[in-house]
UniProtKB/TrEMBL annotation:
Pathway: tRNA modification; tRNA-queuosine biosynthesis. Its EC number is 2.4.99.17. The gene is queA. Transfers and isomerizes the ribose moiety from AdoMet to the 7-aminomethyl group of 7-deazaguanine (preQ1-tRNA) to give epoxyqueuosine (oQ-tRNA). This is S-adenosylmethionine:tRNA ribosyltransferase-isomerase. Monomer. It comes from Sessilibacter corallicola. It is found in: Cytoplasm. It catalyses: 7-aminomethyl-7-carbaguanosine(34) in tRNA + S-adenosyl-L-methionine = epoxyqueuosine(34) in tRNA + adenine + L-methionine + 2 H(+). Keywords: Cytoplasm, Queuosine biosynthesis, S-adenosyl-L-methionine, Transferase. It holds the Pfam family Queuosine_synth. Transmembrane segments: none annotated.
Amino acid sequence: MRRQDFYYDLPDELIALKPAEQRAGSRLMHVDGSTGSVTHRQFKEILSLVQPGDLMVFNNTKVIPARVYGNKSTGGQVEVLIERIISDRKALAHIRSSRSPKAGAELTLGEKYKVQVEGREGSLFKLDFGDDASVLTVLEEVGHIPLPPYIEREDDSDDRQRYQTVYSRDDKKGAVAAPTAGLHFDDSLMEALTNKGVNLGFVTLHVGAGTFQPVKVDDIHNHQMHSEWMEVDESLCDLVKSTKASGGRVIAVGTTSVRCLETASKNGSIAPFTGDTDIFIYPGYEFRCIDALVTNFHLPESTLIMLVSAFTGYQHTMAAYAEAVAEKYRFFSYGDAMFLTKNPDAINEPIAQSETEQKTDPTEKN
């Protein structure tokens, strides 16, 4: 299975640089996983696609203003992107500068806060924020919302509110990217779901910058998946079990919710889980928990489009993406959404060789 099999051509003008005027004002593509049939809807029509007794699972993480600008002691400029908060005063971060800072180097963030580089952990730098202020205090005061790299503009005041779900919790701060499928839900839609008899459950996964990491290897089986911290508690497990027992569906809102639910169900039945997950879901994966999925449109050749292909089927997924381009849907984080049901035959679906693979001499070494 090759990375190139998950490529599609996307015109730049279809990349959403701003959110829709209203959260629930985006479009919704409904893809039937059994047949591949596509229906075009408005997002608020999701109410007609769910039933009383279904369980929708949301990721309640809160995005932190994780991008901070500053200077090295030599005067050179630095851009710091916090990847993970380790403790009140320490964090792991990506640092962009003309030269990588060495252990012991001091950085000034926001022209005020002194931070020391303790060393490196792989590609990340370990930072000590000292006694002046906590990591979160510094970020809240001088940090910027870390918009995805394909949104080529500076963040603005609107992003503080719109690049955040309405159900994110202050005690769940830690994501550096939004669980974007949830951006379409407003308070009134959440209330309408409850009034219809749909149960709402919550997991936590602190989305990291690794979610934008491209797959660089041709054979996707050789891709090293990034890790993210997650939590599935006992109350959510009980909700999943009772939903299944009563014949309801478990509907994951976003691929991060999928990662949580499937990680916690790795032994066949869902159980509480707290810790890191590096689960990589691609065609051939056997889903153990979810029955339907709400998600945005993802980048070509990304691990996320591979996840969707594993769930709804490769052929159905790629055909739906081609139709989305033709119908001029808005793509990526601030774009439109999909409602996908499970393809029971996806696990056994063969994927045709890509043109790149077909033209490769099998005796030729890479």
